[in-house]
Amino acid sequence: MEVKVYQNKVKVAKEFSKFLIEKSSNKKVFHIALSGGSTPKIVFDVLAEEFSNDVDWSAIHLYWGDERCVAPDDEESNYRMTVEHLISKVDIPEENIHRIKGENDPKLEAKRYDDLLEKELPKELGLPQFDLVLLGMGDDGHTASIFPHEINLWISPDNCEVAIHPESGQRRVSITGRIINNAKTVVFLVTGDSKAEKVRIIIDREEGYLKYPASHVSPKTKDLIWFLDAAAAEQLTIDQS
Ligand code: 6PG
């Protein structure tokens, strides 16, 4: 695991954009699973506004690690967030966008997306393999939409599962641990002081850390990188770059 700490969210966004350009350059196709929530907004803005000419968008295929079971124009939609902050600003072919249809029946959509990943992604060890999976982490230590109260979903034999948000009861469709840990590279994008405690517990493997889904992220390739801002890393004892 590699931990990269930058002064602020903008610096995280710039450095992640450079990282993505390096990882995706000279690739005929590059399959990325995007994270949702609010953290990616500034990352997508900076990527689109300052670095989009350095990305070969014709090779980039976008998927989502999870989606809220709402319509694509709903303010809660991860797809809508991504359209507003990235897709609407870059020249990516429509056919390269593989969204989770949050408006569909959750169970049927989990199955449909499960099949889509099997069809669209190359296989590694018999499982679909993303080139890059982007993950966020909640203050409660959840990642994608695998929450502590449903941590059993992490070890699901399926690629996608229906999850339930612990407070709102909102249904989510989420990829599972077998897909996340089969990726070539996994990146956590985590910013803000509300995340600092779980970042410390999970990265420092403190007692009880395994009850947090984010602690189970361990790609077989060992290529796991945390992009943190100083606020999220404030309880860690490492140098700031
Ligand atoms: C979602 C996410 C989720 C998110 C974390 C962090 O749909 O909510 O994919 O896993 O990454 O909840 O959310 P914030 O970035 O808003 O803190």
Task: Describe the protein in words.
The chain is built from six helices and eleven strands. The model has no long low-confidence stretch (mean pLDDT 97). Strand 10 (185-190), helix 6 and strand 11 form a beta-alpha-beta unit. The protein is of the alpha/beta class and 241 residues long. Strands 1-11-10-7-2-3 form a six-stranded parallel β-sheet, covered by helices on one side. Strands 4-9-8 form a three-stranded antiparallel β-sheet. Helix 1 (9-24) packs across helix 2 (40-50).
Structural topology:
Elements: E1 2-6, H1 9-24, E2 30-34, H2 40-50, E3 60-64, E4 66-68, H3 78-85, H4 106-120, E5 123-124, E6 127-128, E7 132-135, E8 160-164, E9 171-175, H5 177-180, E10 185-190, H6 196-203, E11 224-229
Parallel strand pairs: 1-11, 2-3, 2-7, 7-10, 10-11
Antiparallel strand pairs: 4-9, 5-6, 8-9
Helix pairs in contact: 1-2
